[in-house]
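Attaching the record inline, Q. Sequence:
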Amino acid sequence: MTDATTEDTRLVYKLLTGPDDTAFCEKVSEHLASGYILHAGPAVTFDGERVIAAQAVILPDGAR
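Structure, as predicted:
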């Protein structure tokens, strides 16, 4: 899992992707807890076996 609070990962924009499972939800929650905000709604697709989710997050002005 990515550490959303590490200095070198504090990008202004990130697109988080992965299977729509608890680990993905934890990844999004970790980024929200570290100051990121959601950018629009999630996108989902089906790869033939599982649902894959994508969620964009951004840092608000001054949060970097």
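The chain is about 20% helix and 35% strand. The CA atoms of residues 26 and 37 lie 14 Å apart.

More tomorrow.
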